[in-house]
Amino acid sequence: MLAIARALMARPKLCIFDEPSLGLAPKIVEEVEQILVRIKAMGTTIVLVEQNAAMALRLADRAYVLEAGEVVLHGTGQELKNDPQVSKAYLGY
Fold first, then answer.
1. Is it the case that residue 88 has pLDDT exceeding 90?
2. SS3 category, 49
């Protein structure tokens, strides 16, 4: 939270987040997600690298799935969330 606040003090046009939910309790992950939603609503572009695919796809205007460093799927967050291949491999349903 402190790192995010410090980054926002500079009023950036772009913020890059690398695994902001890593190692956090589920309740805190929810808070981080809501903060990212607010940052996005402020007009700041977000580049998010995240293992929590469900959260990432909820936030994403555009999403890219990487495997072994290569883009294997791309589309809107909603498109990938509804893709059967993504659902089975990354979302567990």
1. no
2. strand
